[in-house]
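Here is one chain, start to finish.
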Amino acid sequence: MSEAFDPRKSTTAFDQASTLVVVVELSGKSWRVGANAPGVSRRPLRTVAARDIGAVLEAIERWKGEATRSVARSGAWSWDTRRASTASGTRGL
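Its structure:
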């Protein structure tokens, strides 16, 4: 018997308690960048100018730093640059 679908649970295998999840909503005038950062109680959200990759990367680095500081005591955070490179998707901009 299959289990009921729960949209709050990930269907892929990654540890949500130690993974920085970043979402970018694109439009012609501005981009919204949001994140779910481990150890950070708020859901960071930032609006940047369209095609401003530097501002997107700056926001990601800031959230990564916040997550690192907040969970450094537990040792649960480890930044994996291989995963970051697969999600960059900046080709063609």
